[in-house]
Amino acid sequence: xxxxxxxxxxxxxxxxxxxxxxxxxxxxxxxxxxxxxxxxxxxxxxxxxxxxxxxxxxxxxxxxxxxxxxxxxxxxxxxxxxxxxxxxxxxxxxxxxxxxxxxxxxxxxxxxxxxxxxxxxxxxxxxxxxxxxxxxxxxxxxxxxxxxxxxxxxxxxxxxxxxxxxxxxxxxxxxxxxxxxxxxxxxxxxxxxxxxxxxxxxxxxxxxxxxxxxxxxxxxxxxxxxxxxxxxxxxxxxxxxxxxxxxxxxxxxxxxxxxxxxxxxxxxxxxxxxxxxxxxxxxxxxxxxxxxxxxxxxxxxxxxxxxxxxxxxxxxxxxxxxxxxxxxxxxxxxxxxxxxxxxxxxxxxxxxxxxxxxxxxxxxxxxxxxxxxxxxxxxxxxxxxxxxxxx
Amino acid sequence: xxxxxxxxxxxxxxxxxxxxxxxxxxxxxxxxxxxxxxxxxxxxxxxxxxxxxxxxxxxxxxxxxxxxxxxxxxxxxxxxxxxxxxxxxxxxxxxxxxxxxxxxxxxxxxxxxxxxxxxxxxxx
Lengths: 391, 124
What we know:
Chain A has helices at residues 17-23, 25-28, 39-58, 73-87, 103-114, 132-138, 161-170, 242-257, 259-280, 307-316, 336-340, 345-348, 362-381, and strands at 5-6, 67-70, 94-98, 118-122, 143-147, 174-178, 197-201, 212-216, 284-287, 297-302, 319-320, 322-323, 351-355. By secondary structure, chain A is an alpha/beta fold. Chain A has a 7-stranded mixed beta sheet, with helices on both faces. A 4-stranded antiparallel beta sheet of chain A has the order 9-10-13-12, covered by helices on one side. The two termini of chain A are 38 Å apart. Chain B is an alpha+beta fold. In chain B, 42% of the residues lie in helices and 19% in strands. Chain B has 4 helices and 3 strands. Chain B has helices at 4-11, 60-73, 86-92, 101-123; strands at 24-29, 36-43, 49-57. In chain B, strands 1-2-3 form a 3-stranded antiparallel beta sheet. In chain B, strand 2 and strand 3 form a beta hairpin. Chain B is globular and about 45 Å long. The termini of chain B are far apart. Classes of the chains: A alpha/beta, B alpha+beta. Chains A and B meet through helix 10 and helix 12 of A and helix 1, strand 2, strand 3 and helix 2 of B.
């Protein structure tokens, strides 16, 4: 007893030592308000500038002033969707997004619908991929924005962002992507990928919670989400969270510096995990694309074993995973992502997301698989669903 | 998320499993979330539920509600089982989160469907 294994890194990660070292002085040594004119303020401002430079460099933004710090990915998504919609409302009122976006995007779109905007929610195929032809077919004369996430948070599928962005530009439409799960997973070059606006977050890449950023290419108009100050060049009021921003900058720098070694490690762990599960547990389905996916996330349905019960049993064995069944978020419906991918209710209700981190060992995986074998068998032994009932 | 009683019933359900010789089976499913509760009753010649068991695909609350449902109907006259309400199941568990109250309703439905199944079989 007492063993703990954290497999919920897509929810959040620990703050790495290097990041923490970067943050600590900002709490008490360099504590000025980065907007103040005096030396205390200028020192803090220099730290914010450095973080901005690091992030701009990591994503190959043309200028650092295209990075705006926010309170996280959710604010970045809200700001992108609403800010662009409002700035371009005179040009048109149609937005295209996908049915598997994060709720920060989906609910922002719902809000805009109440204001008279029209939104097309594109379907995905069984792997969770948005089809480019569907994007083209959905484009109208009054389409002002296309927003498609780079990587889905539940199944890890990677979207064809570059192709969709190019298509958007063929029609003179702005392209936004939620890249919260993509930073550090693969190289993102906003210029090469033709991304106009991009949401990012720190706490998925060993940075602190409560800080994120929105990349807005110069020339793109965006209305403010918050009013109340001239911080972030007048675009985002509110005192800048200097320690968090410093940590974020460092986290992005490290994520990009270590990308190949981290990805090699994650891929090895992920492949070992899948192989072990397949060897030891029957009736398992992997949800998502077979290879167009990030290395850090695996979504699996353990048929006949309900996910939330499995999560609770694993938790008692010290293993942290997440269920994509929205039961956890207190809605009754299964995950909108798995539904959109066409999974049956039973399979969607049996889906567990395992998201790996850079500190995991093979022995951790062995332990997890051992506990999975035990707990899946237990739930299946009392399940109302049967093998005979499988489709 | 779950209180101590729900967790206890979830971890150590006393009535889980199928029931040999069961002469009534009922299955209730929740279309929204996919939970399924299946109950098995062994009803004796005098119409008394001698034994009750369950098999459930669902969250911890659904499993706990199933277990309680079996306890509540055991020893009852078959048509008395119709009086077992979701409220009673809820109370036995000393409460469920709002989002899980439907599990107690699902268990009540399963009881009713099992009783119905008993009469159906009997009339044949």
